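Re: [ENG-882] Designed sequences occasionally contain unexpected residues at chain ends

Forwarding the minimal case from QA. Structure tokens:
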């Protein structure tokens, strides 16, 4: 059983689920918590996946505790009904924690996709770092994207034979989507055909809210100084994020605020952008696969291999630092080429196949062991 419920999980798990569903010797059940409703539905439609169980738990302004408690109860009911051999979760969301913990309570093995991401600060990012560490303690099969992730798990005394370095399935999804012919609709069509260099921007981290003034002030300065630059900014639905934008970001004809976008549209925006400025986690892995430099509006990252490879650069939220790093990439071709040409350390598009192969091998081994004991 694959359990996920947010848009990022859907993007990264869709290729894995489709690969498992294509195997004749496994039945793959998909449970959707609908922690994100509309945004995840768009992803499922794009990848042509339908849930076997839809908990429809998204409600306006519910607290994380309310959401998690509902998930635990409802996921447990489905597990009691279906009794899967393995529960597969992804990443670090409330759905991830609830799915893994519900499976643990029924002594069902857990497979954790994108295991081993660590900042070592349980409050950054919050609550994702705590979720991923907690899930790591009750996971049986750890599907790590990189050697760095594997080493983090080994430091936590995870058995090496239970860790598999497979790359990140988000690259599978990204390459599948961006390989297709695509045309933007208005207003993005006119925006992307303007001839201006596009900074694709996202900010939504809860822990960054109080510091966004510095980020937006730096953007204001860049737009004043560079008339050939425009911002495309899909704005998170969180009212607190929108309040900060309204207070601190100067709007003009080159500041394009748009509603959250379908994954297909966003993927092609990444492909066409000049550079990307974000505090998102997944984008740090995706954009380098398309040869795009990424400036990260955070002081630390659970993806240090991207920094080491040169595809990412941490710039925090201080106005002077953000301005300096943006200015460097806009005015220094050598610096831009160095980042855009760096090798992406997060995978080659075959992660889903590797995960499915490992799962099938483990299930066959466990079945054989049970039959041996019985005989």
């Amino acid at each position: 059983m694959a359990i996920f419920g947010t848009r990022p999980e859907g993007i990264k798990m869709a290729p894995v689920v489709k690969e498992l569903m294509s195997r004749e010797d496994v039945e793959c059940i998909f449970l959707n918590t609908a922690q994100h409703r509309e945004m995840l539905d768009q992803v499922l439609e794009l990848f042509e996946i339908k849930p076997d169980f839809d908990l429809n738990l998204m409600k306006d302004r519910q607290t994380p505790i309310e959401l998690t408690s509902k998930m635990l109860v409802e996921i447990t009911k489905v597990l009691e009904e279906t009794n899967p051999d393995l529960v597969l979760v992804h990443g670090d969301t409330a759905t991830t924690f609830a799915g893994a913990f519900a499976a643990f309570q029924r002594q069902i093995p857990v497979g954790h996709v994108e295991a081993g991401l660590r900042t070592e600060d349980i409050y950054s990012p919050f609550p994702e770092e705590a979720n991923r560490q907690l899930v790591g303690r009750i996971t049986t099969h750890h599907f790590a994207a990189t050697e760095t992730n594997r080493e983090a798990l080994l430091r936590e005394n995870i058995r090496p034979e239970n860790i598999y370095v497979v790359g990140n399935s988000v690259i599978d999804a990204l390459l599948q989507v961006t390989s297709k012919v695509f045309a933007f609709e208005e207003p993005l069509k006119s925006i992307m055909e303007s001839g201006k260099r596009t900074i694709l921007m996202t900010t939504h981290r809860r822990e960054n809210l109080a510091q966004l003034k510095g980020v937006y002030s730096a953007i204001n300065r860049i737009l004043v100084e560079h008339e050939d630059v425009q911002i495309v900014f899909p704005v998170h639905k969180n009212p607190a994020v929108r309040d900060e934008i309204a207070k601190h970001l100067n709007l003009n004809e080159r500041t394009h605020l748009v509603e959250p976008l379908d994954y297909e549209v966003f993927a092609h925006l990444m492909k066409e952008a000049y550079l990307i400025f974000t505090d998102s986690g997944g984008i740090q892995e995706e954009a380098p696969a398309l040869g795009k430099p990424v400036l990260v509006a955070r002081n630390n990252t659970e993806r240090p291999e991207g920094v080491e490879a040169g595809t990412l650069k941490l710039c925090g939220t201080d106005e002077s630092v953000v301005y300096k790093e943006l200015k460097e990439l806009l005015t220094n071709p050598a610096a831009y080429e160095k980042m855009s040409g760096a090798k992406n350390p997060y995978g080659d598009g075959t992660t889903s196949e590797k995960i499915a192969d490992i799962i099938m091998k483990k299930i066959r081994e466990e079945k054989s062991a049970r039959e041996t004991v019985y005989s």
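QA comment: On inspection the terminal residues look reasonable. The CA atoms of residues 177 and 323 lie 32 Å apart. Proposing we downgrade this to a documentation issue.
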